[in-house]
Queue: 2 jobs
Job 1
Amino acid sequence: MNLVEKTEKIFALTTPLYYVNGLPHIGSAYTTMAADAIARFQRLLGNQVLLVTGTDEHGQKIQRTAQTKNLEPQVFCDQVSAEFSSLWKLLNIQYDRFIRTTDSRHEVIVKDFFKRVWDNGDIYLGEQKGWYCVSCEEFKEERDLLEGKRCPIHTNKEVEWRDEQNYFFKLSKYQEKLEHLYQHHPDFIQPESRRNEVLNFVKQGLQDFSISRVNMDWGFEVPVDPKHTLYVWFDALLGYATALLDPDEEAGLEKALQKWWPIKLHLLGKDILRFHAVYWPAMLMSAGLNLPHKVFAHGYLTKDGQKMGKTLGNTVDPITLVERYGSDAIRYYFLKEIEFGKDGDFNEVRFINVLNADLANDLGNLLNRTSNMVKKYCGGNLPPITAEDIPVENLLKAIGLDLGSQVKVAYQDLAFDRGCEAVLALVRACNKFIDEHAPWSLYKQGQQDAVEKILYAVLESVRLSAYLLSPIIPDTSNKIYQQLGFQVNFNDQTQTAITTPFAVHSQWGVLSNKQKLGKPQPVFKRIEIPKND
Ligand code: MSP
């Protein structure tokens, strides 16, 4: 395999490393669910995938929160970090690496990286004066502050005045190089609207930023001056590199970057785009390292129009949601209902209505009614038909022939809503097709051949839909595939790319009467709207 082929087959992607100042909420879960869907889709394509997630555990915000709980920061971090990994399991997230920035190997990577940047002459000691938001762990421009010197993102928090000596990173030196990057790699920042925001920000002229703090010891020492602690963001971004080490591999920056670097995709919320699209590539340029291929910033999940967050305390608890509705329901709602890149509000009634309409009625019922007809009209066996027996004029076949490539592009564009809608259009067409062709009447008229073609076309469409939705609703897709007689487990990532490769299973006509249909069962149970709780 030549180098080009090798790198095309390797796909490392990241979620942000979440702050452990509070329990995970649905906002943090959102990025992770999206990342997992992409990872699953990439695995179906046959790529080697590494999904990186983890927790960001240093800095003032965490230190202060631990203090308020009377806990040692490390003890506090251990507790909250475990909550993240267990939520990811509940949400059926198949992460490959969970990096914690308090991992001892991470310190080695950060120091190796610091040395490269230092040796390149891009770090100097200077004066830092300005308003600092501890919740953002970021200095703010005075003009951006709300009344009462409050942070525009954490609207209930006042910023703090800082006047201290810090080490700075020479971001200004990378102004032209960054502009060149954005111009020559227009896909580097996505979506387009966010890209424009970054371009406008950079156009105003980049300023060096401080990468150390004094009077704060929850973090790594600055290697050249132990009185200083490295700024949490300088430390955290490098978590993406540390995560690439194999589990028992000795730490070292070069080693870490050997197999999976460069990262193909950083997924994050729009609040932290600047760090990923401006600071991070400049830091990498300074260290002489390759840049990630793409940074995608999605929107905020809001509740009553306000960003949901730990600091504001207006979060939706994902554990309650998962326990009530199961992981597929949550994954489906957030990925299908919100255009990835735009903000979206959460409303439980809407959530239930969407799931009932799409998964319980349109998809689940379709399989159920069709399986029942197969039982009645075909003795419970799949009709002995192949895809070639169905003419291309058949509406379902016509839609299905194109659907795989259409949904592939949607996943590649991270347009989950578009992908789901395209699949749902086929599902709805199937229901209409059955109603219009009324196989029960054809059966009575003795038109067995026509009945079999209809049932085959519908079941094949259901199979195709389940396959294409499997990165989003793997459990439901499993139930559908099993009912159609396949021995497949979409949660077994070592197996699916071999048993159900995208190139084959995204095509129309995979179903054959060699499969023995399973017992009809509801693949997605209808949800009742809970009474005022
Ligand atoms: N620790 C930093 C990231 C360092 S990455 C090297 C951080 N952590 S965070 O926990 O505050 O938030 C991380 C991410 O969580 C956001 O960028 C976003 O991906 C997700 N979200 C947090 N709140 C969210 C919403 N209300 N809505 C959507 N996503 C949200 O920043």
Job 2
Amino acid sequence: MAHVKASAAVSHVGRIRANNQDSGYAGHRLFFVADGMGGHAGGDIASAIATHRITDADATYRDGHEASVALEAALLAANRRIGETVADHSELTGMGTTVSALAVLDDAVAIAHIGDSRIYLLRSGELSQITTDHTFVQRLVDAGRITAEEAMVHPRRSVLMRVLGDVETRPEIDTMVLDTREGDRWVMCSDGLSGVVAFDELQEILAADAGAKQVADRLVKASLDGGAPDNVTVVVVDIGEPPAPDTPPQIVGSAAAPLAFGQSETPRTRGIRIAPFRPHPVQETHFEPDSEDYFDEIIEEDARRRRRRRLVWSFWIVLLIGIIVAGVVMAYQWTQTRFYVGESNGRVAIFQGVQQDLGPVSLHDLYLETEVDVSELRAYDQLRVEQTINAGSLADALVIVKRLEESID
Ligand code: CA
């Protein structure tokens, strides 16, 4: 007999977004997250509408089949309600939401899932991802076109192929029934967690000896520490004894606030329309056509982008090499304008270049060997010549030689 020993729902707006479009629900037997998105407004409304509709399915079911049928029906009802809301409020066109829901039964859980929120199971310290993302990049991974690692950083990683929204009347929803037992820890989260915190870190945090609420808080904190570019929502359910006391269901995120679009019923004051929603940028795309032509077109577009990037890189590398070569040539030419006085075959000599060598490259050549013997010079001048005397130009070098010659007694 599986009891819910403890549960917790936590939602945070994150560090970048202006509002929270996620919702989370931790009820008696039902638990879920809903990550809203779309258009210039409405993601928060989509997830709130779905949440309010799906909480109706928080009931006790006889078996897994009955539960999964009820969950699927609840998600489809939420989909209809979002469509109806868009029909009444055209400014909300394009809004949608993911839903990943889990109902706890006697010895099993029933799951209904659409979108890129996730359900994980921690059992005996091992974490497994239970749901599959309905994303464009997941399709590329399934088709063997990219690896899971490439999917994590793919520019289109947030594009969803399936979602509850105003586009499809009957979107395909994944359902499953899995066994559960004492000690299992089920986790639902939005991509604000799974897209930021690596799998190993998720497992480490979830496997810690801590309660559901503490673990949910730690997961949100891990996402915040990772920059939290998106809203982050986590629902944790622990299976075991004793059963949790009967507390009111917990709703977090956008569904916890009253729906805001009722304001559009009184839209005018002195002829100026009051915007019913706060304007905010939304980076995610919630739906793209699910046709093979489109699929191939996007792959081709990615390939073109990669080729362009390679071309741009090649240009900069060639330019950089050109600059380095030009610099070396100019430096060498400068050394050849320099002269110094030194010794060659026991005679005072003039050298062109600088005394130093650059590794195996000599930066000087004998220019002129004079008739003056170094040994005839004064001891002090002999030392100077051996150590070489700098001369800016050839004329300077000739003057130095002349003076050395004159100094001989
Ligand atoms: Ca999200």
